[in-house]
Amino acid sequence: MAKRSAPEINAGSMADIAFLLLIFFLVATTMDIDTVISRKLPQKQEPGSPPPPEVKEKNIFEININRNNQMLVEKREYVVLENLKDKVLEFLDNGGGLGSNEVGNCTYCKGGPDGVVDPTSSDHPNKAIISLRTDRGTSYEMFVAVHDVLGQAYIELRNREAMRLYGVTFDDLLDQKFNDKENVELEEKIKKIKDLFPEIISEVEPSGN
Amino acid sequence: MSKFKKQKKELPAISTASLPDIVFMLLFFFMTVTTMRETEFKIKEPVLPQAKSTKRVEDKNFVSTIFIGKSRDASKSGDVIQLNDKIAQVSDIKNFIMVSRVGKSEEDISRMSTVFKADKTSKLGTLADIKKELREVDALKIAYAASQTRKDQ
């Protein structure tokens, strides 16, 4: 028998197949990326476990939101959302005393937007607790908006410190980390900045029904 | 002068041999950039609140999502919870978290987080009940989904 060369495979329909797959993926997938505000829940309190340590009143920044989405700050001041950030910055950046873990005075605190250290406000950013008390009737939109403002305040302070120490903003550090997950040096920088202004937000179980 | 004699030539057909390559390239682009469409909504699709200080979800494999929204039945008021493809009760949350942990190592479990995709009109009561359940099963990492507004706004 004569040796026959194998016939060439017709690749003309390859494009059709690829188009079909392409259209399938266009239809079945979405482009949007989820963006979230992450928080942490407190550990479950076992019965009989020691009570949480006492915290000085001045190290707690209390935000109260009622069921009509009105906000009361530090039990005495009615605040709208636009003014909350300055209040939070004022509180976090106060640095009026000694910090925990023997870090001493807050050397990088600027005393908030007005630059005045208030002895009746927080001692140190690593002691400053933001306590968020809500009602069961508070709307989710308001709740997220308040969390957003708190997040913005922390980001602003962290950006400032990252600029001072490394010459880049904290956002940029996070972006770099997102694209280069294995980078240990970046991770250390991020951790250091986070430790300067740790996010301590406590949510009190809502009241009402 | 025969060199310059007009040659009658037919136009060559345009080669489509590279067309599959181009299409495949597009295909791979879309496969990498997009994500699979998620669950079908049994509740009214939640409209997320807006926020600026949001972060991207790092790894979707370590996220379980809880939807909170209004019922499709307009006569029913109050918030409805949806887990996966089903409408659920607060008491189902523990089970849902346990199921999501099956087959994962201890280290992976500690990386898992729970994302709330709640409608902006929903009330915090439901959310508080869910959080209580999450604390019971030690799923402490939570996140509130929000659509990002531009940073300079």
CATH architecture classification name of the domain at 50-148 in chain B: 2-Layer Sandwich
**Main sheet of chain A?**
5 strands, mixed
Multimeric state of these chains? heterodimer
Mean pLDDT of chain B: 83
User: How many runs of DSSP E, i.e. beta strands of chain B?
Assistant: 9
| Interface with most residues | A-B, 51 and 56 residues
Task: Report the CATH C-level class of the domain at 50-148 in chain B.
Answer: Alpha Beta
Rg of chain A: 26 Å
* N-C termini distance of chain B: 74 Å
Measured as a percent range, the helix fraction of chain A is 25-40%
What layout of secondary structure does this protein have?
The complex is a heterodimer of chains A (209) and B (153).
Chain A lengths: L13 H15 E2 L4 E6 L19 E6 L5 E3 L3 E3 L1 H12 L36 E7 L4 H27 L3 H10 L4 H13 L4 E7 L2
Parallel strand pairs in A: 3-6, 6-7
Antiparallel strand pairs in A: 3-4, 4-5
Helix pairs in contact in A: 2-3, 3-5, 4-5
Chain B lengths: L18 H15 L1 E2 L13 E2 L3 E2 L6 E8 L8 E5 L2 E3 L4 H9 L4 H6 L1 E6 L5 H13 L4 E5 L1 E2 L5
Parallel strand pairs in B: 2-9, 4-7, 7-8
Antiparallel strand pairs in B: 4-5, 5-6
